[in-house]
Amino acid sequence: MALDLALYFDRINYQEARTATLETLRGLHLAHTCAIPFENLDVLLRRTIHIDDDSVFEKLVVAGRGGWCFEQNGLFRNVLAELGFEVENLAARVLLANPPQMPARTHRLTKVTIDGQAWVADVGFGGKTLPEPVRLVEGEMQPTTHGVYSFERVEHDWLLKFHAADKAINLYRFSLEPQYDSDYEAGNHYVSTWPESHFRYCLALSLYHADGTKNTLSSVGENAPVFTRAQEVYDLLQKNFNLRFDHPNHGISLDDFSAMLVRIGVIKPA
To answer: Mind listing the GO molecular function terms for this protein (predicted)?
Structure first.
């Protein structure tokens, strides 16, 4: 389904200005992250993740689902371009889990230039995603509703950091080399099919709120919740993460959902 701005604005509950200004970019960015959740359910359901423009719009906007970076930032980039923003496709190497060697470029993000100043827009990085665009300048501490971010130059790359109470966390690094659809197709395929990809066995959802709080859910780690029934999780995701599971193409039946939870060990088989 082709891009329909009216449907998109309705999906993210956005009623403000639609001119290509920094104020608009900030408003859209926050509204998007507060309405369309990061989620990896289709990967866990062993579905193919289609990231062409029509498929992404149908899934995230029409069907009321969420998605990951290739979907989220692809949709957001298209909206910005349609509104007249100067945008450029970028890709990053994710460092959040402290990989033992330099990882491939498997994260999509967007550079937006306004009045000669470059900004980074990223609505698809899960629980550490940017709630608003951040200025692409080195060494500037940039507070947002969901924490403080900064950039550092590392060799020929830019390194994005998140500043927690007592330490700085490296999120990802990227160059300004433009990316093409084929680059994203390769990254999307790799992350969704590589046997060691944590997205293939870990439930991961995140949705921001404008007051600085967020809903997150991960099925691994010391803070992973304990569930006994699939129905409990099924209802929780729709309630807490603004999801719908009733679309004919992108919906999820309770039976399929239950089988997936058993397979990844979230609940025990009956």
So the answer is: arylamine N-acetyltransferase activity
